[in-house]
Amino acid sequence: MSQYAALRANVGLLGTQLGDTIRNQLGDAVLERIEQIRAVAKEARQGTELQDQQLKQVLASLTDQEILPVARAFAQFLNLANLAEQHHTISKAGRASIEKPEPVAELLQLLQNKNVSKSRIEQAVADLSIELVLTAHPTEVTRRTLIHKLTEIASCLAELEQDLAPAQQEKTENRLYQLITQAWHTNEIREQRPTPVDEAKSGFAVIETSLWDAIPEFIRDLDTALIPVLGHGLALDAAPIRFSSWMGGDRDGNPFVTAKVTRQVLLLSRWKAADLFSRDLDILANELSMNQANDALRAVVGEASEPYRKLLNDVRYKLLHTRDWLTEALKHDRLQRPEGLIWHNQQLLEPLLLCYQSLLDCKMQVVAEGLLKDTIRRAYAFGLTLLKLDVRQESGRHTAVFSEFTRYLGIGDYAEWDEPARQAFLLNELSSKRPLFPRNWSPSPEVKEVLDTCDIVARHGPEALSTYVISMAGKPSDVLAVQLLLKDAGITFPMRVAPLFETLADLTNAPECISKLLAIDWYRGYINGRQEVMIGYSDSAKDAGAFAAAWAQYSAQEALVAICQQAKVQLTLFHGRGGTIGRGGGPAHAAILSQPPGSLAGGLRVTEQGEMIRFKFGLNGLAQRSLALYASAVLEGVLLPPPVPEQSWRELMQQLATVSCDAYRAVVRHHPDFVPYFRAATPELELGQLPLGSRPPKRNPNGGVESLRAIPWIFAWSQNRLMLPAWLGAGNALAVVVEQGKTELLAQMRAQWPFFATRLSMLEMVYLKADAEIAAYYDEKLVPEHLLPLGLQLRQQLAADTALLLKLIQSDTLMANEAWIRESIMLRNTYVDPLHILQVELLNRVRHAPETVNDSIKRALMVTIAGIAAGMRNSG
């Protein structure tokens, strides 16, 4: 029996039920048409040019009435196939076919085999600090209402794995059919773009539906694995993985994220935490009905006959009172906070810990270690703010504040000052005890918005906020400017301020910037030995190509680690990764282990964005597995760090980076036909009509490719399957060094250096997902004749690059050693192919015969975009 038989059986079951739904709704003829297309698509994948042409003819001949149901059928099937795959990774049947089914246990065995001492493992576990930052980048095309139905479908699949009685089996299959029918009758495309508050609510929903249970269960599993090795599990107050968010805090280029929105999201986050913890306490109060208690608990509750229940009900009442007040606060811009609310995490933890210790003292450890301990774990992991919020703003907005203010004072224009003059002004004001901005100053609306944001930060405190991220930061003054704005707003805690280095030039300049920053006495005193730096993956790859960007990221991290070690400052690197290879994505385990040695010593912060949040954390079991993969990778990176690269490896990598960057920019920046080709060959312009995230697709609405955000840039190329940003330039560079006779050195680097091995593995995955024939069809139907030579040149380059990589890795098949990933991609191709062909047909109509385009055709186009994104999985 194939190791994927269970997966295929579930895909078949879901497909059959979707077919039954379509038949009942639209009749046998439509279903037969869909089945005909599916059969021909499968044959075309395995067959000849003739079958490929047949598929295109069948799809081109669809009537206006048929196009939308066909597009929806294939898009819905891909959502169901993705779900079956997610479920497979956490099912009993799937364990044999996935990589690292027990990541923590496997790591601990590896550490013992490598004779890593118990004391080193103990220290690494105690220091384990991972912060996953949920971001609202607009690549999650699936609506929240459909995500809920998909989650319910996964529960049915899990139930069907059990040995059910015939009646229960039938009941569960009926429920599955109901859910698939509900999904079919639900519009898969949002009517309107989500607001930043809607996005934040999506983040809260992930906590509520999966992570709320997954966090304590993951820590239990971690304890179970650690006890045989260390003799004990994690400390009670351990929170090895915490969650933060950018949803409602990321205002970089998003005019819809205002100070008012940030306040609303901070209050909503507290509201949801109060609601979830009050539910926990309701369950606990029912469970902890015992009357035996220690003196400490008795001192608080007196002679109550059920002391635990009395204490927990009192806390629950205060939480409900807090939730009610928050409901009112959300309706008013300012509302005085009354006494008696539970506002600080310690107010929640103290009674929980009191109950826990009392149960231990009264020899009821088995009770203490149950649901009560789970709630304590949640209190440490989530706290009363649920998700700590990051604030992100572009450095130019801070410069504009001081520029306007210095002009008001008549002392010149801050924006025109050099770096020493800016630093002198900022440091002088940072040391001053008087307020900076006079009351009679009336700033412009843009400047007032920045000041209002700082005011919100100062009011909400360290439990609610995590890091202030400065995008496009390049100089120490960019960081000092934020420190001064926060100080003047009355901040009472040392908020972390992280410069974000995101272009190739920024990354190259990062070590010098941080070195100068750490040389400032005031700053060293302020940060108290801790520095956070954010590394941007998306914009650097868009700027220089994935290969050159990866080396710049690695080199910057390595230099920053050395600078902070020398300065005796603990460095936390914050990785701004996306879901795709072109935005620093890929398997998290491999990505973490390919970082420079020492880069994990200060913990790990990393963004989780868009559709990847659902793919990693959408189901409880999936979330537990994702958390375990993160924990095991960080522990391995700390305890078994990768080697320091040899000088010969560095030199060759630098050569590869330089050549690949030149080749990438020769096309993207300097080829005269590139921009018009890009706009013709991909649905880039049409993507703007898809109501994905709250943020505009461009920083500058009138700009060209350079102003396009990294996400739609990647998204567009994944739609036509050329996947250009993830590979362009890399093959040119490899070809040059192979011609120079450096193949053996490349093989050595691949065998001994995880960073380089991961780069080649990522290329392998991209080449497997890319499809030159599909890209050629987009060109044939959509691209003007004078632009066709560029498309041909790029596809020829892709073919040459793929052949060269296969030669270098000594394989005749892409991803031959990653059977699970290969199976996953192949499984979906049959259903993605028709959507590509349909999309081409629809784009052709929209662009060349707009008078024939009705609402049904427009919606069908949006459905193909969403469906292809589902099929490609990590679309942005």
UniProtKB/TrEMBL annotation:
Any Gene Ontology biological process: oxaloacetate metabolic process
Report which reactions are catalysed by this protein: oxaloacetate + phosphate = phosphoenolpyruvate + hydrogencarbonate
Alphabetical UniProt keywords: Carbon dioxide fixation, Lyase, Magnesium, Pyruvate
Report the EC code(s) recorded for this entry: 4.1.1.31
- Keyword Hydrolase in record: no
Q: Which cofactor does it need?
A: Mg(2+)
Check the record and name the InterPro entries matching this protein: PEP_COase, PEP_COase_bac/pln-type, PEP_COase_Lys_AS, PEPCASE_His_AS, Pyrv/PenolPyrv_kinase-like_dom
Gene Ontology MF terms:
magnesium ion binding; phosphoenolpyruvate carboxylase activity
Which Gene3D superfamilies does this one have? Phosphoenolpyruvate/pyruvate domain (1.20.1440.90)
Q: Which GO terms describe its cellular component?
A: cytosol
In terms of HAMAP family, this protein maps to: PEPcase_type1
What do we know about how this protein assembles, alone or with others? Answer: Homotetramer.
What role does this protein play? Answer: Forms oxaloacetate, a four-carbon dicarboxylic acid source for the tricarboxylic acid cycle.
Recorded protein name is Phosphoenolpyruvate carboxylase
Tell me the lineage of the source organism. Bacteria, Pseudomonadati, Pseudomonadota, Gammaproteobacteria, Chromatiales
